[in-house]
Amino acid sequence: MNAPTPDLRIVMTSALFPHEETDSQRLEPLIERIRNEPDIINPPIVAPIDEERFVILDGANRCQAFVRLNYPHILVQIVSYRSGAVTLENWQHVICNWSADALIEHLIDLSGIDLRYGHHADAIAHIHCRDGRLFALHTAYHNLHERNAALRRVVSVYQRSATLQRTALIDPEEVWALFDNGAALVVFPTYSPEDIVAAAREGALLPPGVSRHVVQGRALKVHYSLDALRDPTQSLEQKNAALRHWLQEKIARRQMRYYAEPTYQFDE
To answer: CB burial class (10 A; 0-12, 13-18, 19+) of residue 223?
Structure first.
């Protein structure tokens, strides 16, 4: 079955609400890249919270870059959890260029975090060390704000000292085969769409790079003019009218192609 045609729209940057923190290791280089590029290439993915607000499902760093660069508007792809075209999964974190012992030592000293051996169903995350050790991270906090804040403190430990890589893999042996410098794998629990919307609505942000939204019909390589988004003489309605005309032209010229098969891209 073909995926739905992408619902591309231009919205106010102030109408977008993240459900996770931005990644400090990715944000600054991204700001510089967008500052020097003529086009927005891959639009962020958002879902409605209400009639005026959207939760950012994918692309929090890109959205924050637009805020930092003082863009009033941004091009996004709007999807709905209820459409059946979005699957919510997880990224796991591979901690590279650091030692597992240093990581564990820092986590033991972390306020509000209890480190236990083995697998525990109620843990906020698990850590697989390259030498085979497995740890479960627990917190005494139960409400959304406190649990997510505890998880952010955990991630900030290795954000400061290590290189953070994302992976969809959960088998440590598969991860070690791909990451020669990987010292530990952090595996997060599964979340629901309600968790994501609540995190955005209440400002109880998850750490960066935890949720992973698989979108059927994701718009990529769009190359829409950044000048058009910046233009202070055009209203939001006028910009969306121009976008609709641009999309019609793309379709008429057969410049939009749908690939049904899963793909890997090597030019990110």
So the answer is: exposed
Which CATH number goes with the domain that contains 179? 3.30.1760
Number of domains the chain contains: 2
Angstrom distance (rounded) from CA 94 to CA 86: 25
pLDDT, tens digit, 9 for 90 and up, residues 175-214: 999 999 999 999 999 999 999 999 999 999 999 889 999 9
Q: Which range marks the domain in which residue 139 is found?
A: 92-187
User: Measured between alpha carbons, how far is 260 from 2 in angstroms, rounded to an integer?
Assistant: 7
Global pTM value: 0.86
**d(Cα 249, Cα 256) in Å, to the nearest integer?**
10
- As a whole number of angstroms, the distance between CA 12 and CA 72 comes to 6
Residues 31 and 66 in one domain: yes
Shared domain check, 35 and 69:
yes
How many other CB atoms sit within 10 Å of the CB of residue 222? 18
What's 220's domain CATH number? 3.90.1530.10
CB 79, CB 47: distance < 8 Å? yes
* Long-range contacts formed by 81-84: CB under 8 A, 24+ apart: 81/47, 81/193, 83/4
Helix (H, G, I), strand (E, B) or coil at 29: helix
